[in-house]
Design a protein that fits this description.
Blueprint lengths: L5 H19 L13 H4 L4 E7 L2 E8 L6 H14 L15 E8 L3 E3 L4 H7 L6 E6 L2 E5 L10 H11 L13 E5 L1 E5 L3
Antiparallel strand pairs: 1-2, 1-3, 3-8, 4-7, 5-6, 5-7
Helix pairs in contact: 1-3
């Protein structure tokens, strides 16, 4: 699914880091990219994930493409650092220790399946991000989550629980499933 070149990836990582720096250190100047590539102007969904010493420190994203990618990255970087309800706000002393990862999403596509086995057959671990929905409950796991949950049943069960459903809800005919792929990249360690 590679769409972005290395320069575009580096610009997005710098936009994300600068947005967080500006919030923590108000004297920081905004980064003005040396170029404004057309690919960064396209509306795309994205997630920004923060890691601190290898552990998750924040992750917020936008699945549907509603804003230019560079704006989406900036907003989600701020939300991952300061608005993820699972974590306290990022603190200035953590700034140098965080690692930023960006995931740019393809458009989600709904899949059809007649039974749980057919659903599992359509999933590609490590490739597909998955969205489960039922009524007003919904949640997603990025494809990178397959690294922690490589078994399809465990992946789907944990995803349903994240959405506030019972773990076996994915076996129900009332569940809706969408798949997407990501192009993800991170700052060097």
């Amino acid at each position: 699914m590679a769409v972005l070149n290395e320069d575009e990836k580096n610009i997005l990582l710098r936009i994300a880091r600068t947005a967080i720096e500006r919030e923590l250190l108000p004297s920081t100047q905004a980064v003005k990219p040396p170029m404004d590539p057309p690919e960064l102007q396209k509306e795309r969904g994205c997630f920004v994930t923060l890691h601190l010493k290898g552990a998750l420190r924040g992750c917020i994203g936008t699945i549907e493409p509603t804003k230019p990618l560079k704006v989406c990255v900036e907003e989600n970087a701020l939300n991952a650092a300061f608005c993820d309800p699972r974590f306290p706000r990022l603190q200035p002393h953590e700034l140098e220790e965080i690692n930023i990862e960006i995931s740019v999403l393809s458009l989600p596509r709904e899949i059809t399946f007649k039974n749980p086995d057919e659903l599992k057959r359509q999933l590609k671990p490590g490739v597909h991000g998955v969205i489960v929905s039922r009524d007003f409950q919904s949640a997603t796991f990025l494809p990178q989550v397959w690294d922690q949950l490589p078994e399809k049943e465990a992946f789907l069960g944990n995803l349903c629980q994240k959405a506030g459903m019972e773990a076996l809800a994915w076996k129900s005919s009332r569940i809706s499933v969408k798949l997407y792929e990501v192009e993800h990249f991170a700052e060097p360690d």
